[in-house]
Every structure is written in C-alpha cells, then in structure tokens.
UniProtKB/TrEMBL annotation:
Organism: Weissella cibaria
Name this polypeptide is given: Aminotransferase
Transmembrane segments: none
Lineage, opening ranks: Bacteria, Bacillati, Bacillota, Bacilli, Lactobacillales
GO terms (BP aspect): amino acid metabolic process
Entry EC no(s): 2.6.1.-
Name of the coding gene: patA_2
Cofactor: pyridoxal 5'-phosphate
Pfam families referenced in this protein's UniProt entry, alphabetically: Aminotran_1_2
Gene3D superfamilies documented for this protein: Aspartate Aminotransferase, domain 1, Type I PLP-dependent aspartate aminotransferase-like (Major domain)
A GO molecular-function annotation: transaminase activity
Family: Belongs to the class-I pyridoxal-phosphate-dependent aminotransferase family.
C-alpha cells in the first residue's frame, strides 16, 4: 500500500496530542486549546438560521458568497485601512487553518524554504513539508518573540532565491506578542523588492489590547496574503469560516487550491460570518469580548508572576507564555504532565511550539475568570507541594 512519503516527516498536531493525552485525568481544568468559552451572539446565530429556513442549501461560489466577501472587504477597510476587491481578491476558507494550507501550497515548490519565526503555532511547518518545502526557523526567544529586520535580512542573505515566503503570525499563538506599525514597516523595507511572499496570519487581529492592530499588507500589499476569520473575533470556531485576501495573481493561485480541496464553505456558516463582519452589532460583539479577555489577561499575568513565572506581556490573542520558575523541573513536557496529573490543571508544554519554547508553558485564558482563579490556586498548591 502506497502512502505519501512526506507524511513520515511530520507528527500529529502537538497541541491536540497533548490535550488528548491528559483529557482523561479526573477533575482536570483545561487551559489548553484556543477555544473561546463565549457563545456566538444571538443575531449571528439568527442569520445562520435564516439561511437554513430560506433553503439556502445549494453550492455557493467557490470563493464564497458575495455577501460574505463584501463583508470581509468592509471589515478590513473599516478596521485596518486595507483595500481589496470582493470579486477578485478574496477567498472564503474553512477557517484560517485551510487558509494556511491553501496559501503555503500555492507558493511553495519542492526544495523551497519558508521562514517561520519560532516559537510558532505548529501547523505552518507540516504544511510546508507536505508541499515539499523546507521549514526554516528563526529563534525569537531573545528578541521579545518578534522577528527583527536584521534576522530577516540574515535569512535572505543566507538562503537567497530558495527563500520564497515568510510566515508572520501576530498577535502570536503561543506568546501573545505582536508588532507595532513601526516594526512592520521596518520588516517591509527589508522585503520590498524581493520575490518573497508574506503569509500574514492575523486571525487574532481583533484581540489586541494595547494600541491598534496594523497589517503588514498596509506597507507591502503586492507581496502579502492576509489570513483572517471569525473564529477568535466572534467565538465562532465551530462555524469554520476564515478568509484570505491579497493581490489578484496570488489569490487566483490560492483559489485553485481551495476549489480542489473543499469546493466551498457552508452557506449558513457564511451567512453568520457576513453578519459578524458586516454589521455594527458584530463590531460591538468583538469589543465586549475583548474587554472580557483583557480583564482575564491582567488577572492571570499578575497572579502567575506572583508565583514566580516570568511572562512577556501578551499584547494580543488569549494566551500566556510563562517561563517555568527556577527551582522547578525545567523539562516543560514533564512539568506539564505532572501539573495535569497531580495539580489537575492542563496547559500546553512550550516545546510543542518548537524552537525557543522549551522551558515554557502556554495557558489559554479563553476561559472564565472563575476557572482561571481555580487554576491559579491549583498551580500554587502544585509548585509549593
């Protein structure tokens, strides 16, 4: 029986694998997955219901419904001053996850290198491998978990024409770090004039707590594919709606991959997403959620620092990337397993996120404040036992 040989080079998603490993622990409190505990707002659910009741049950255009593509264009213009054409520069995907697959597959040929600032969400690398490319990492643990212009230039000088793309995920999963407009402009200056495509995973763009989110597409529109969606901004993870925007030539290639992979997204889910992105009510939903997450972040960062964890201040997303205190076991996998089994708190080992993640744990604060308070009490008891 023949299988794709590249599958031997990748492992199952480390986040999901660890979560499954500890899920049967009795009375476990899980802060593992980026799964909002907030329900989808009623008006968004009603839009999906209305779609079903209207017998909106036939194939949608492969690129997504006109209503959703126009809503996505409105959203990007309103929030981030980005201008795209709904008819030729937008593809609706099954979450940002499909967007990652489509964009990487569209631009990578066998032997090509893709630059990935690490620690990183462990989906980019296996997708590069499946496309025949070579994931190429830059350790950002010493630079506030952000790629610097010097690091980027060094990679370009080292790999030359082999380097075809760079992944920028900001705000970051797992660290919550994000870039200022000045930092993005500086990166764009290095990339401008090259043939390198920027894959900008901005799925957490609406969850920036300090200042405003800026997209690198504002500085480098002809080289950037922007990934976004409603999973995090509107707690719609199960609806599986994301979108990719970019210059027409690149979007045409992304659209081909999308067509052959999934045909199109679900009509009721797209109706809900159009309501989320295209209305003032949808904007207010996100602002309310962001305020709740900010309060949780502030509590969790302060409480864990008081327990001795070193934590870079998360500027966005809903994760804390905490360095295990000196004097405790520094093997983050062993620490996380013991914390789950003995302390009854589930987190993700930092090494699941690759280079620069060892010695850290990631905690999701997409959980209630009560659960976070309980988790902190359990962690305190565990590390002082």
């Amino acid at each position: 029986m023949s299988l794709n040989e590249r599958l031997t080079q990748i492992q199952p998603n480390a986040i999901r694998a660890f979560d499954a490993q500890i899920s049967d622990v009795a009375d476990i409190l899980k802060l593992t997955l980026g799964e909002p505990d907030i329900n989808v707002p009623t008006h968004i659910k009603q839009a999906a219901i209305d779609s079903i009741l209207a017998d909106d049950s036939h194939y949608a255009p492969a690129a997504g419904t006109q209503a959703l593509r126009e809503a996505a264009v409105h959203f990007l213009a309103d929030r981030y001053n980005l201008q795209y054409d709904a008819d030729s520069q937008v593809i609706v995907t099954l979450g940002a996850t499909e967007g990652i697959y489509d964009t990487i597959t569209a631009v990578v040929n066998p032997g090509d290198r893709v630059l990935i600032p690490a620690p990183n969400f462990p989906l980019y690398d296996p997708t590069v491998v499946l496309a025949g490319g070579v994931p190429t990492y830059v350790d950002t643990s010493a630079t506030d978990f952000l790629l610097t212009p010097d690091q980027l230039q060094d990679a370009i000088d080292t790999y030359g024409d082999q380097l075809v793309a760079v992944v920028l995920n900001y705000p970051s999963n797992p660290t919550g770090a994000t870039y200022t407009s000045e930092q993005l402009s500086a990166l764009a200056d290095v990339l401008r004039g090259t043939d390198i495509t920027v894959i900008a995973d901005e799925i957490y763009s609406e969850l920036v707590y300090d200042g405003q989110h800026t997209s690198i597409a504002q500085y480098l529109p002809d080289q950037t594919l922007v990934l976004n969606g409603v999973s995090k901004s509107h707690a719609m993870t199960g609806y599986r709606i994301g979108f990719v925007v970019g210059p027409t030539k690149l979007i045409r290639a992304v659209g081909l991959i999308h067509q052959f992979a999934v045909t199109s997204a679900s009509n009721p889910a797209m109706a809900g997403a159009a309501e989320a992105l295209g209305t003032e009510a949808g904007r207010q939903d996100t602002l309310a959620m962001k305020a709740e997450y900010a309060a949780r972040r502030d509590y969790l960062v302060k409480a864990l620092r008081e327990l001795g964890f070193a934590i870079p201040q998360p500027a966005g997303a809903f994760y804390v990337f905490a360095q295990i205190p000196d004097g405790l076991a520094q093997d983050d996998v062993a620490f996380s397993l013991a914390l789950a089994q003995e302390g009854k708190v589930a987190v993700i080992p930092g090494s699941a996120f690759g280079i620069g993640g060892a010695g850290y744990i990631r905690l999701s604060y997409a959980a209630s404040l009560v659960d976070l308070q309980t988790a902190v009490a359990r962690i305190a008891a565990f590390i002082t036992d």
